[in-house]
Amino acid sequence: MTTSQSLPAPVPAQPVKAAAFRELHAEGPAPLVLVNVWDAASAKVVEEAGAHALATSSSAISWSLGFPDGNQLPQALAMGALSRIVAATDLPVTADIETGYAGSDGAFDDAMLRQTIVAVLASGAIGVNIEDSDGEPLTDVAEQARRIGVIRAVAEEAGVRLFINARTDTFLSGRFPDSAYDETLRRAPAYLAAGADGIFVPGVTDLHILHELSRRIPAPLNALAGVGAPSVGELHDAGVRRISIGGNTAKAAYATVSRVAADVLGDGNWSELAGARSHAEMDALFTRARPRE
Fold first, then answer.
1. Whole-angstrom distance, CA of residue 46 vs CA of residue 52
2. If you average pLDDT over residues 110-121, what whole number do you get?
3. What is the CATH number of the domain that holds 39?
4. Within a domain: residue 253?
5. Mean pLDDT of 14-43
6. N or C terminus of the chain with fewer C-beta within 10 Å?
7. Which domain holds residue 24?
8. How many CA atoms are closer than 13 Å to the CA of 212, on its beta-carbon side?
C-alpha cells in the first residue's frame, strides 16, 4: 500500500475546492453542468464563460497528444495535461482517468492505479471519473468495486475528499442490449459501497430511464449530453444532478479547425476566421495580477 510519505500534502485551497465541488452535486434548482476541457486554453475559455467547475475529457486529451481514445494514452502524458489544466484555473477540476492508466483487466497493476491517484491529488484536482469499460463484457463488478476502494483509500490517506464518479458503460458499450438498466442497478450499489460518490451512466438520454435510475440510485446521477439530447432543464427534472458533454467540446473545436483549413487551402477564403478571438484576448486569459510589493 502507498505510504503516507509518498503521498502529497493537500494543495492550498484543495480542501475548499473539494467541498465546493461536492456541494455542486446537491439537490437544488439546477444541476452541475460541465463543459469538458483538454488543455489550459480550453480550461480558461470555459472558466471565462461562467463555469462553476471543470472536467477533463480523456478522449480530447488523447487526441490533442496524438493518441486514440480508449486507454491508449500514457499515464505521464495524461497527468501532465491535468496538471497544466489545474494550474491554469481557480475552479475545482475533476479528472477523467479512463480505467486508471493502470493496464488492462488481464494485467491490471494496483501500484500504477495508486500512482495515478497520487498524481491527480498532487495536481490539485478534486475528483475523478473511473470507468468499468475495460473488460468483456465489462470489468467484473467485484473487481471494479475493489479498484474504487483503492482510489478511496489513497485519497483518504492523503486527506482529500476526492469525489469519485463511477462510470459504468452498461448502456454506452451496447453489450447489454436487453439488460442495461438492470445491469446498471446491479453495479451502482457495489460501486457506492466501495467508496464512489456519484454514478455516471453515459449512453442513455431517455428521460424515463434516467428518472428511474435517479430514483433508485442513492447518489448523484451523471448523464452525458450532446446534440439531440434533452435540455438541461429536462435532464434536471428527470433527476440528473450532473451533466457533462465529454469529448464533444473538442470535436466542435476541431470541426472549426477543419472548416478554416478547408477554406484557406481550397478557395483561399478567410471567411471562417471571422469571429475569432483576438491575440490580446487569448493572452489575457493567462495574465495573472501581480502580487503587490
1. 9
2. 98
3. 3.20.20.60
4. no
5. 97
6. C
7. 12-248
8. 10
